[in-house]
Amino acid sequence: MSQSYIIEVGDDQVGLVLRDSGESEFRFHAASSAYLPLDGRRFASAALAEKAARAHRAQALSRRTQPQHLRSVEL
């Protein structure tokens, strides 16, 4: 039997994690394009997936509030 949990950050449903029977880890499925970097990642628990989603959001918000001249440039 599989297990699944909705991952929420604030009031937003950002993805879900699914663990198929016989699997030891949960796989993250992004429900929002903002969380695509986490899509497909595996986590030992739903709580760790939620923690990663919260960290991803915090990182994205800090990038948004950083002045343009301080942002790193990707080559």
Task: Give descriptors for this structure.
75 residues, single chain, elongated, 4-stranded antiparallel β-sheet, 29% strand, 1 helix, alpha+beta
Structural account:
By secondary structure, this protein is α+β, with helices and mostly antiparallel strands. The chain is 27% helix and 29% strand. The chain contains one helix and four strands; from the N terminus they run E-E-E-E-H. Strands 1-2-3-4 form a four-stranded antiparallel β-sheet, covered by helices on one side. It starts with a strand and ends in a 10-residue tail after the last helix.
- Indicate the radius of gyration in whole angstroms: 14 Å
Indicate the percent of residues in helices: 25-40%
Sheet with the most strands, sense and barrel status:
4 strands, antiparallel
Structural class by SSE content: alpha+beta
Low-pLDDT stretches are none
Mean pLDDT: 90
Give the number of DSSP strands. 4
Q: Which percent band covers the strand fraction?
A: 25-35%
Quaternary structure of the protein: single chain
The tally of structural domains comes to 1
Terminal CA distance: 45 Å
Order of helices and strands: EEEEH
State the shape.
elongated
Summed up, the helix count is: 1
Strand order of the largest sheet: 1-2-3-4
Strand-helix topology:
Elements: E1 3-9, E2 12-19, E3 26-30, E4 42-43, H1 46-65
Antiparallel strand pairs: 1-2, 2-3, 3-4
